[in-house]
Amino acid sequence: MRGAGTRSAHTSGSVVVNPATWSKVAELPPISLAAAYRLRWKRRQLLWRAFRARRQLRLIADRTSSAGPDPILAFTVLRNEIARLRFFLSFYRALGVGHFLMVDNGSDDGTLAYLADQPDVSLWSCTASYRAARFGLDWLTWLQIRYGHNRWCLTVDADELLVFGGDQSHGLRGLTDHLQRRGVSGFGALMLDLFPKGRLSDTNGDADMDPRKLLPWFDPGPFRAVRQRPRGNLWVQGGLRERVFFADQPHRSPTLNKLPLVRWNRRFAYTNSTHAALPRRLNALYDGPGGSLPSGALLHSKFLPQVVAASRVEKQRRQHFHDPDQFADYYDHISVDPDLWHAGAVQYTGPEQLEQLGLICPIDWDQPQGTQPA
């Protein structure tokens, strides 16, 4: 993905990517010195916001001193996610996360108490507005400043599972070691919505069950992408939610690109969830589906049965989206318990399948050592 143009990636067939064509970063659209100066000021403003937002956090348990040397840290803001938590923690522990830093935003379903008992979780509580805190980014940015400097930091939601080719044999530690040898300071991913066949409420399973088994289907495309100015971030749209909820207004469909894994520096800041970051060079670390940079997928388990009732609640809370009124129909559509399946759906089998479909780019685990990341 080059320049500021748009690329469509309908990935219904196999795509073969030659690892020899990999570059370390994508090419960003040029910007003026004035634009670069404004971005520097924007980043300083975001860091200042995070510094002020620290006062909204109430410490429940700080166990970071027990995390061991150079752990991979996971950062999450969540609310009422008890149904996902046991598998979420088990999944990321097995993948290689050494410690979790989590902010509970007013849960009333037992989430806070459950997390407080976990020996590898440091926990904060906050009842302030999620939307006013840049959808939790102000809180996480402060924790990343305080605990994440010069460490690999994974920033994910409770309904996101990171997968990549070779994850079962190499894990996160193998991935971060590989990236460092190549001089790469981050790893991008496509957010891929999983869904069941049949109405959402018909899905049956317990809280320990793998959501990939409860929601085994996904849309293989089409996706489209454009690289935006001035930040140079990718903007990927398409897939399930566009097909079902935004077919008449595709420009409003959710952003699907993320940069969840970064070798953090206290001067970094995410600007819009993990879709974009500053300094802008971080946004060159991902070039989307059909691209040439090594990447993974964030399997999105939003559409578990509880989303039907939760959508009614979240519509009233108005804590998601910059303009909640524009997305009232989105919540209403979920609340009627739809069947999201269609004939073009594909059953998920693993990240190697996503590589064959061109949705993620394979990692050349034998790539020779490069320079160290800046």
What would the keywords be for this entry?
single chain, 374 residues, alpha/beta, nine-stranded mixed β-sheet, three-stranded antiparallel β-sheet, globular, disordered N terminus
Overall structural class, as computed from helix and strand content, comes to alpha/beta
**Widest beta sheet: strand line-up:** 2-5-4-3-6-12-8-15-7
Figure out the total of helices.
Answer: 10
Global geometry: globular
Q: Main beta sheet: strand number and arrangement?
A: 9 strands, mixed
Q: How much is the average pLDDT?
A: 88
Fraction of helical residues: 25-40%
Quick overview:
By secondary structure, the protein is an alpha/beta fold. It has helices spanning 33-53, 82-95, 111-116, 137-147, 167-181, 211-214, 239-245, 307-317, 328-335, 351-356, and strands at 6-9, 58-61, 73-78, 99-104, 121-125, 152-155, 160-163, 186-193, 217-218, 223-227, 234-238, 257-263, 269-272, 276-278, 295-300, 346-347.
Topology record:
Elements: E1 6-9, H1 33-53, E2 58-61, E3 73-78, H2 82-95, E4 99-104, H3 111-116, E5 121-125, H4 137-147, E6 152-155, E7 160-163, H5 167-181, E8 186-193, H6 211-214, E9 217-218, E10 223-227, E11 234-238, H7 239-245, E12 257-263, E13 269-272, E14 276-278, E15 295-300, H8 307-317, H9 328-335, E16 346-347, H10 351-356
Parallel strand pairs: 3-4, 3-6, 4-5, 8-15
Antiparallel strand pairs: 1-10, 2-5, 6-12, 7-15, 8-12, 9-16, 10-11, 13-14
Structure description:
With 374 residues, the chain is α/β, with parallel strands linked by helices. It has one domain (26-356). It has helices at residues 33-53, 82-95, 111-116, 137-147, 167-181, 211-214, 239-245, 307-317, 328-335, 351-356; strands at residues 6-9, 58-61, 73-78, 99-104, 121-125, 152-155, 160-163, 186-193, 217-218, 223-227, 234-238, 257-263, 269-272, 276-278, 295-300, 346-347. The chain has a nine-stranded mixed beta sheet. It has a three-stranded antiparallel beta sheet with strand order 1-10-11. A two-stranded antiparallel sheet has the order 9-16. Helix 1 crosses helix 4. It starts with 5 loop residues before the first strand and ends in an 18-residue tail after the last helix.
